[in-house]
Amino acid sequence: MLEVTNLDCVRGDRKLFADINMSLKPGTFLQLQGANGSGKTSLLRILSGLLAPARGEVRWQGANIRSLGEDYSTAVTYIGHRSAVKEELTCLENHRINNGLAGVEVTKEEALETLGRMGLAGREHLPARLLSEGQRRRLALSRLLSSSTHLWLLDEVLTSLDRAGVTLITSVIETHLKSGGVAVVATHQELNLAAGCFERLQLTS
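and the corresponding structure tokens:
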């Protein structure tokens, strides 16, 4: 379970949000909404442990994430709004390296299968610089198919995806929720989920 208590975020001299409280049980999908600059990315980074809050705390399975260290980082998959792929590396290399950095070893055969499922068949050996924006996003999100983490934190997950891509990622998230996972997703688009408990948090700038 993910619990947030009295969370404040300040960037520079500006308070982005204050008094955020929530409790997300297994199988819950939380959609973060708000205008640009309202703090969606900052909240995701706080939840991931990459950014410290100005006040309040984030707890995972009853413990403050600041005390959990690697036990928390290995339970979380965070994918930012930038695709974060290496231009000079191939799709196959990007997928295997990104998973390796997250502590997940993926064989070449497993990687090829995953990239095929993500609609990148035939492009596995292309440098990422030759991909379209939508294909780059699919490549970044391919890590979800190799993930066994319980908490997914996804920033603008549907950016640059076509209708087929949206349908695919919706299905991937649904499978995660059915297995008892939690997903916190910042997106301006509605996800029509057929599984899980749906919640929404609106941030105001």
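(Above: one complete record from the training split.) The beta strands are 2-11, 14-24, 28-33, 55-60, 63-64, 76-79, 151-155, 182-186, 197-202.
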